[in-house]
User: What shape does this take?
Amino acid sequence: MRSTARNLPLQERGPARARLAHMARPIGLAVPPVLLLGALILGDKLGVALVVAALPLTVATAVGRPILTRDGRRDSLTGLGDRASLTVALDRMLHGAGGRRAVAAMVIEIDDFKQIEQRHDRAAVEQVLRLMGERLQDGLRGEDALSRLDGPCFGIALASDRRLDLEAAIQLGQRLQQAACEPIAIGEVQVFVTVSVGFALALRLQQPGGAELLQAATLALIEAQRGGTATIRSYSEAMQHRVSIRNSLCDEIAAALDRGDLTAHFQPQVSVCDGRITGVEALARWHHPDRGLIPPAEFLPVIEQAGLMGRLGEIMVQDGLNALRLWDAAGLNVPQVAVNFSQSELADPKLIDRLAWELDRFDLSPDRLVIEVLETVVAHRIEDVVVRNLSGLAGLGCRLDLDDFGTGHAAITSIRRFSIQRIKIDRSFVSRIDIDGEQQKMVSAILTMADRLGIETLAEGVETKGEREVLAKLGCGHVQGFGIARPMPRPETEAWIRSFEAQPRRAV
Ligand code: C2E
Ligand code: CA
Ligand code: CA
Assistant: This one.
């Protein structure tokens, strides 16, 4: 089936998503009108006013936005072609002598570009973009075409006279990634960048035009970005299928949240030294009427895209506090429930009032609620609503756990600054710790640091008795993982707690 710009998955997330929306238009100046139209369709007066107000600003300033001054089909900043010229180049290659046998489109985007924009001035950002263009150009052949699509996103038309199969395209993508991630010296400072890559081989699409091929590569880039930074993905029909499923989930999510189809499951956390239950983590599950139990990895992006993370957060806090109340009433000793908070929820200025109200409603003291914050959220944070909310939550008396510790480059200062009470050592450090000396060294260093800072520790993803024993020997405070218990619905959790408490108490 031939895809068109109209049936594109506009609700796809990630920095590249917005680019899909205006791929059919030759230049990025189409963005404000598209936004304006969207706001009008949605009947959102405020949106219209904001778009109108932002229009001159958009045109005047943004480096990370579509190019504004053009010399024919050139990007004034990098001197490269633009989206329209790339589409034309792809069309030409597809209709050229080699046909579509070995034509491919590749889309490359600088990861976390917003952070680069926040940390450096405009001249530095422009230098990064110019250099990126040069590095990519150096990695290509004369017959390939390189364009800057918009902001930190570059597109490449790979010509048909090379042997271009999946493996060759991946190798090329990796070479370009390597070239791109060489540190960039700007004055005294070094800027480190990584890029993600999506590509589409023309053979994987039925009768593609240049625009469709570029669109497929953009979809692959979005999938790459979903997998983290510095990732490469190739377009496939299966990918298109996954996107369609996500799109249909997107249509259903609001009603599912209202119907109560999303609930918290609970995974116990246990003290290493005395084997007591020290808390539970609330993990979201979608009980779908047709598809069964859907895990967060599948629906969180959909909820985020729909702007409904706040609603999920409310449900999780309510389910969590409700469980504590019921367990208290049943005489079970579960000191606290931990709830995961996304960056967008933490940026809600009403968050503290909302949580204070919920705690009051359930008549529970704030120290019964643990806020889990991802390490990536606190790393390199400048003063903003998130920072104010985190200190406000600590002030309220809630506890803060730093989630996925070891994966997000948080500085020790941010652990202090945000009044983190406990770090959750990521599963990647814990797994096979009983047989891997390097893992032991790493965890031991983390535990020493935590000890010196006077903060508690929890090891995540503990699966085996061997791992548990080594963690106990190294002095880790708490453990959580399939080896203790899987996340369970509330009634099952209650049954599990009763049977766990009935066993003779022993250190883990
Ligand atoms: P997380 O916060 O790091 O949660 C731990 C994840 O590891 C959970 O996956 C849990 O089921 C899984 N896990 C626990 N023990 C083990 C183990 O021994 N081995 C292995 N292989 N896995 C283990 P889950 O429930 O699929 O959640 C995935 C992620 O989704 C969570 O990672 C969290 O970041 C996010 N998430 C889940 N619920 C919510 C929510 O309500 N709100 C937000 N914002 N994020 C949520
Ligand atoms: Ca967590
Ligand atoms: Ca975690």
